[in-house]
Description:
Layout: H1 5-30, H2 41-66, H3 75-104, H4 106-122
Helix pairs in contact: 1-2, 2-3
Amino acid sequence: MGLGMEARIVVSTAIALGAPVGIYLAARAMRLSPRLAGLSAMQLLWLSLGCAAGNALLYNAAVAMVGPYHRAENFALEIFPGDVLGTWAMILLVKWLLTLSGRFRISTFLGEQAGIYRLRQRN
């Protein structure tokens, strides 16, 4: 983008803060607990939309603040769909990895079995 150091810092800060701000605002709007435990698929969808919107809007605002666009375009319209798809890809990947690790975690299973065995010995 040809930005100077100060402008790069402003844009980088906006990128770093955009997603957390979007998630925070979406969670507050839906009155979710701060721990975000036990989310439904619809709540995850709204949080991912908030994340993408926060990132796209703050990035767009930062680029507009530090200098004129090279082209007359709105970066938010380009970033938002990519962030939504990327967020859902990561959510599904993490879900798949957690499911996979839960099926093949032998150490946890053996630890539970050892705990049951100790309880039976005490009784």
